[in-house]
Amino acid sequence: MELEYKADIDVVRERWAAFWREESPRPLLHVIQAKRGVEPIRKPRPYDCAFAELDPIIDQALGWAASHDFLADSIPSFMITFAPDHFAALLGAEIKCSEEGQTNWVEPCLTSLDDVEIVFQRNGYWWKRTVATWGSLNRFGMYSAAIIDVPQCDVSCMISPDMFNTFEIPSLIKEIECTAASIYHLDGPDAL
Q: How far is CA 101 from CA 19, 23, 45, 48, 127, in A?
């Protein structure tokens, strides 16, 4: 296999495969540095994909890859995402652009659970935008030749350990059983 910006991709792919098989003799190293003598291009923000034109974002992501060296086990990647609660937008919620520019958020859309019908919005704007823009998900620069996921539970810091074990653990197990590789995204020290 040949990958522009990563000449040793075949060796690195095997190191990642050994990692996922729990056979890696060492930790994997994710090291990215600007190339010497080249003006580095900033990596675009993934959340810009929700509202901005995509061609300039793609050009910037390619420029970022061209102006950096991907050392050790790092692989050039760019995650396309709209918001942390992207899934809620597929059910009818609206995504709001953050005024601080750090992330996007899903606008609360329910005032009560009475008479709520949660339905996938196949003809909704956010599903159409997702289909039009989605690429290969390689979150946090991790690599897998098969399906990879980074499950999380942001509400874990607001519920008891018993509630987490009762409600979230079964969902996490079901989610990761559908993947070849996964790492849990712990959302801060309060989530322990």
A: 35, 40, 9, 9, 23
- What's the pTM value of the predicted model, to 2 decimals? 0.69
Domain ranges of the chain: 9-145, 150-192
What is the dihedral sign for C-alpha 100, 105, 109, 114? negative
Q: Which of 36, 44, 35 is nearest to 66 (CA)?
A: 35
Cβ pair 40, 100 in contact under 8 A:
no
Tokens of 168: 């979230």
Among 67, 89, 62, residue whose Cα is nearest residue 77: 62
Range among 21-25, 52-56, 79-83, 136-140 with highest mean pLDDT value: 21-25
What pLDDT score was predicted for residue 166? 94
